[in-house]
Amino acid sequence: MVAQGAPSSIQRALPVAPIPETERIKLIDVLRGFALFGVLLINMRNFDLPGQTWTGLFDRIALWLTIGLGDSKFWTLFSFLFGLGFALQMKRAELRGAHFVTLYARRLSVLLLFGLLHHLLLYAGDILYDYAVVGFVLLLFRKLPDRIILILALACFLIPMGRHAVQVRLNEVQRSDPQAAQLIAQRKAESKREDEEWVRTFVSGSYLEVMAYRARHFMRRRVSVNNSLFELAGPLPLFLVGLLVGRHRIFQNMREHLPFVRKALPRTLALGLICTGISITGKWPDPVIPYETPLWRGLLWYVGTPALSFSHACIVILLAQKNHWQARFTPLACVGRTALSNYLLQSLVFSTIFSHYGLGMAGKVGPSLNLALTVLIYGLQLPLSVWWLGHFRFGPAEWLWRMLTYGKLQPMRLA
């Protein structure tokens, strides 16, 4: 994070070091902790065999709330915060006279390793690997003018929408050609077989069998050029927006921008609810992504998602300005400060609950109990994070990340 005041000559001479507690911006940690709740909510659903159909009233309501208010909304916020953190760390390194590119490249390399291990050992839906790869791309754009960054962000934002439109239109054209329609049917059958293979492996396979499947999944999804470009186009525009916000010190001077936040909240909330609400009513109660077709539903989804994500952030920002909410948000900030550790811990808990080599509950819980489990697990992570930071400087994963980045042992316990 960037220091609040101008550094002295002594500070400029200091070697690169982790961010001191006094230089952290609590609101960013609060937002990161809040976003982690949504990541937990969606990953819980992903672990519990999302392809199943749940017909109970409470399950259908929970599924609608999970998809409508949670799916992609918190991941969007988390990605924005990653770009924001990038900008703040870059500014801080410049003020201290450090070589930012070298330092951040090491930081991203460690995150890349974490993501790879997380994917193979715990969860095939890992985001750390993607963040690390896109982080290297962000290094290339760090000194571009604001206008160019905005244009790039908009262009990258339109890529998933364009890909969706082309794919839907292509499917429509191919269905009119019997030979092409047969090819589409074969591809769908192959995709279905892959999904069924994953379900069989996860529900009845050993840990080594599940890990072997994750390795094959990694090669298909991450190494494939087409899939990789699409995966990277998702977080990049959010990273770029975060870079701009951090560059202009918005969070250091948040009070000056509160009028804009107050005006934006009702508009983005209304836009997000309307677009998202319409987009997910097409195949109800089909729990598989319900916004794929027709074309206009998918496009509404891509508009509603960032709008709702922005409104979520606005609500937290406005509440954080009130004294009684600042104290209530302290546990959230602790979760945000240990976000990597908590993210990995969530995956460990999920794999223990749902996998065959754990409790074997995959497909037996349902959306309503998933929602309750999400609240329970996150409710336990809040006091755990507060307790941990009462004794240690960093979360365990953050400590290892810093130690590998800076190449030396970091102090762990508080004095």
What does this structure look like?
The chain is mainly alpha-helical. The protein contains 18 helices and no strands. Helix 2 packs antiparallel against helix 4 (73-96) and helix 7 packs antiparallel against helix 13. The protein is globular and about 65 Å long. The two termini are 22 Å apart.
Which secondary structure elements does this structure contain, and how are they paired or packed?
Blueprint: H1 9-13, H2 26-47, H3 57-70, H4 73-96, H5 100-121, H6 128-141, H7 146-175, H8 178-204, H9 207-221, H10 225-233, H11 235-247, H12 258-279, H13 295-319, H14 323-328, H15 330-337, H16 339-354, H17 367-389, H18 396-406
Strand segment count: 0
* Secondary structure tally, helices: 18
| Percentage beta strand | under 5%
Q: Largest sheet, described in full?
A: none
Topology pattern, helix = H, strand = E: HHHHHHHHHHHHHHHHHH
Structural shape: globular
Number of separate domains: 1
Output the radius of gyration.
22 Å
- How far from one another are the termini? 22 Å
| Low-confidence residue ranges | 1-18, 284-291
Mean pLDDT: 85
What would you call the structural class?
mainly alpha
What share of the residues lie within helices?
over 70%
List keywords for this structure.
mainly alpha; single chain; 74% helix; disordered N terminus; 18 helices; 415 residues
What's this, in brief?
The chain is mainly alpha-helical and 415 residues long. The protein has 18 helices and no strands.
